[in-house]
Structures are given as C-alpha cells and as structure tokens.
Amino acid sequence: MGKRIRVGIIGVGNCFAGLVQGIEYYRRNSGSPIIGVMHEDIGGYRIFDIDFVSAFDVAENKIGRRLDEAIYQPPNCVDWLPEVPMINAIVREAPILDGVGVYVEKMIKPVKQTKTPEELRKEIIKELNDTGTEMLINYLPVGSEKAVRYWSNIALEANVGLINCMPVFIASDKQWVSKFEKRGLPVIGDDIKGQVGATILNRVLAKLCDDRGTVIDQMYQINVGGNTDFANMIERSRLASKKISKTEAVQSQLRQRLGEDRIYVGPSDFLPFLGNTKICYINIKGRMFADRSFEIECKLTVDDKSNSAGIAVDAIRCLKLAFDRGVGGVLTSPSAYLMKHPPIQYSDAEAKILMEKFIAGEIER
Ligand SMILES: NC(=O)c1ccc[n+]([C@@H]2O[C@H](COP(=O)([O-])OP(=O)(O)OC[C@H]3O[C@@H](n4cnc5c(N)ncnc54)[C@H](O)[C@@H]3O)[C@@H](O)[C@H]2O)c1
C-alpha cells in the first residue's frame, strides 16, 4: 500500500456524504475514468489514498455513530449509493457556537451540550492526535463565524492543515495565513468552487463579455436549492461573507467593476423538494458596437454535492503535497483554481496553469 492521507471532517453534512459516496462509486467502478478531478494521480496520490480518520458534528443523530452510518442520517440526502463500507471513525461532539441557524435547527436537532467549548477543545485535540489526523476539512454552515475561528485555532494547536470549503475568510485573511505560515501548516480556501457551478459559469460568461470588449450594464445570478445549506442561507444575516465571496468571484473577472447597484450574485431561496439539486439563473445585459444591446440568459441545473466533491479530492491531495514538500501557509494556486475566494484571484484558465505547475513542483505554492 502506498502513502495514505489522513483527513478529519468538521460538519458531516451533504458535502461530506457526497465526497465519501463519490470515492466509493469509483472504487466499485474501477477502470471507468474519474470525471472532474484534475488528474487521477496527483503527485503519487489517487483518490483512493484518502482515509477519513476523525469527524466532528453537533447533530444528535450523528454524534457517536460510525462515519459510514452518520453520512446517511437525516437531513443528509445524498443517495448515490445505498451504503458504503465501514469507516473506522466515530463522529465526536463539536461545540455549537454559531453553527446552527434558526431555519435548520429543527432539521438538524443539535445535541444538548453539557461541556464548554474549552472542555471540548481538549477532547478534540486529543482525538486529532490519537487518530493521526493530518488535515481538517471545514464543511460548517454559512455564517458560522465563531465556529470557524474556533476550528482554525484548533488546527493550529493540533498541528494539522486546513481546507476551508465555506465562506468565512481564513485562507484569504492575511492574519490567519501568517499564523498558519508560522506553524508550517498548509491551508487551501476559501469557499469551494464547483466543478461546473454557478460561480465558474458566471465568471466565464462575464470574462467573455469583458474580453470581447462589450460593456456589461447589469448582471444577476440567483440560486435555489432544497438542502440544509439552502435552508440555512434564507437567514439573511448569515449571508454577508457568502455574498462577498460569490460577488467578488465574478467582479474579479472584469477590468472595471460593476457598480454595487448593478450586480446581484447570491443564494436566493429554499425549495425543499429540490433536495441537493441546485438551479442557477444567470442574466447579463450589456452593450456592444454602436451601443446596441444584448442579453445572455442561462440556466444551470446541477447536483450541488457532485459539484463540490471532485474539487475536494483535489484539494486534499494538493494539501498533502504541500506537507510532503514542507510548504506551510496558504497555497495560492490550488486556492485560486479550487476556491471562490482565494487570496489571489486569477482567471480560471490562468489558475489551471498555475495549479498544474504546483502539482508538478515547478512552483512552491
Ligand atoms: N457545492 C457545494 O456544495 C458548496 C459550494 C461552496 C460552499 N459550500 C459550503 O460547504 C458547507 C457545507 O455544505 P453542506 O451542504 O455539507 O451543508 P450541510 O448543512 O449538509 O452540513 C453541515 C453540517 O455541519 C454540522 N454542524 C452545524 N454546526 C456545527 C458546529 N458548530 N460544529 C460542527 N458541525 C456543525 C451540521 O449538523 C451538518 O451535519 C456550507 O457552508 C456550504 O455553503 C458548499
């Protein structure tokens, strides 16, 4: 057996359920091409070299369960496979802090906590050490500002790397990055960018209009879905950083920013019957030669969890490469290619070239 990657999970929700079931899907269909990963082999690591060794959540029905069972607990709704093989890790209790919003509380049923965050901190660090966790993946709900800071400090203290899949800014925040750099721990973030999701589609369309010299007068991207992620995001006060992340991802592709009153990019509503299907509408209105107007209207219907899981397996393998190479701090190229709100934004084509160079070891980060 080759080298393994030992991963811990913060938030055993739908994204993680998709990640586990997707990897198992390819194990069962060995020989079929793995769609949506950068390479089947990244620096000697295949998607099958990932082990999930620790996990943390606040849901009553997930804590204490083996990970392969916990991913099927409601309100999780990824059902690509009826079951996955045993995973030898038990979901442990995390502090709730600001993790659970008002609209998801009834769906998640958080555990009644008897320990303080400080007491749990000691147990969590012990669990990370005992299980040999090398990196944590953060899948906390949007708006969990305090919880993300708590977990970023845990990563620093327990000496593990961090992949931040959601929009509380760590990898794109200079102060946090310097803390990880000082500890020699790699970070990728923030806010995972789907394989062909609303963000990348909107970025490419906006850049196309910009590159072809049109003037964009107004643009919107609205998104609806039916899982807990979308239920959580109807609580508008939790959305500030999500809107920044999504809007900046698009604005960064324009030579001249659109006025704030001319652009809307964000999660929009919760339609329970959609489950993990996400529907995105993009509309761009602008002008071309002789001030003649044009309009682009585009609809994307996609499995939101399939969209993120392939990206996550590449992030995990890139973080492992950084460990192998002794590189700490933020990995700017993988972050630009894989995340919506990286510390440095590039076009997606440039980011792909940089990512290849990182994998090949031609650039440090
Ligand atoms: N395509 C995508 O799926 C995509 C893209 C970009 C970002 N994201 C982000 O990834 C994150 C995860 O998405 P998801 O669909 O898995 O969400 P989810 O609601 O299915 O899962 C969140 C999990 O976190 C747990 N949780 C809540 N508070 C917690 C706490 N304080 N500590 C530990 N666990 C806690 C919940 O019980 C749940 O199991 C979200 O922030 C989402 O916006 C997803």
Helix content: 25-40%
The residue-averaged pLDDT reads: 96
What name goes with the CATH superfamily of the largest domain? NAD(P)-binding Rossmann-like Domain
Task: Identify the strand order in the major beta sheet.
Answer: 3-2-1-4-5-6-11
CATH class of the largest domain: Alpha Beta
Report on the architecture of this protein.
With 365 residues, the protein is an alpha/beta fold. It is 37% helix and 20% strand. The chain folds into two domains: 5-193 and 306-360, NAD(P)-binding Rossmann-like Domain (Rossmann fold), CATH 3.40.50; 198-304, Dihydrodipicolinate Reductase, domain 2, CATH 3.30.360. It contains twelve helices and eleven strands. It starts with a strand and ends in a 5-residue tail after the last helix. It binds nicotinamide-adenine-dinucleotide. Residues 10-15, 56-59, 94, 96-97, 99-100, 108, 139-142, 144, 147, 165-166, 191-192, 194, 197, 227-229, 304-305, 307-308 line the site of nicotinamide-adenine-dinucleotide (NAD).
